[in-house]
Amino acid sequence: MLRNALGKTFRFLGYTVQYGCIAHCAFEYLGGIVVCSGPSMEPTIQNSDVVFSENLSRHFCCIRKGDIVIVKSPNDPKSNICKRVIGLEGDKVCTSNPSDFLKSHSYVPKGHVWLEGDNLRNSTDSRCYGPVPYGLIRGRICLKIWPLNDFGFLRASPNSHRFLDD
Fold first, then answer.
1. How far apart are CA 39 and CA 122, in angstroms?
2. 8 Å CB contact between 37 and 126
3. I need a labelling partner for 65 at 20 to 30 A (CA). Which of 20, 35, 108, 139 fits?
4. Domains of the chain, with CATH numbers?
5. pTM for the complete prediction?
6. SS3 assignment, position 85
7. How far apart are alpha carbons 86 and 160 in whole angstroms?
8. pLDDT tier for residue 158 given thresholds of 50, 70 and 90
9. Is the pLDDT of residue 96 over 60?
10. What is the CA radius of gyration of the chain?
11. What angle do CA 123, 28, 114 make, to 5 degrees?
12. What is the 3-state secondary structure (H, E, C) of 90-155?
């Protein structure tokens, strides 16, 4: 009887560890559900919108200009932020605010990306903390799940004029 109970307990623990490892790998490498908060990505993503973030793009270096990504915050590594990729390594980016009379530009260093929120007037982004290391990218948002009336792929940036091609 004791042997039977121990056998069932160890089998249960084995399955728990096994399925826990599978779930960890799925969330770490495939993707997951994310609830976005804050006004920095409005109007594209509103406060409390639920999105799906896929993680394969970051592993295969498939992040492109215009993608919306989930990133470990350079200011607070315990939190994640949601921003749009404006520039990749070697790209020339506008580093000034939209209201600045004189525009300043810089180049994104190797191994970094330039991130900005769609709501430029209410976003703490690369204009404040500079280029972000590629390694801080956690995933790429590809689908809005909630609210249901907004379900689908995300729309283009309202600030596409800030993407420089030279």
1. 7
2. no
3. 35
4. 1-163 (2.10.109.10)
5. 0.77
6. strand
7. 8
8. low
9. yes
10. 20
11. 30
12. CCEEECCCCCCCCCCEEECCCCEEEEECCCHHHCCCHHHHCCEEHHHEEEEEEEEEECHHHCECCC
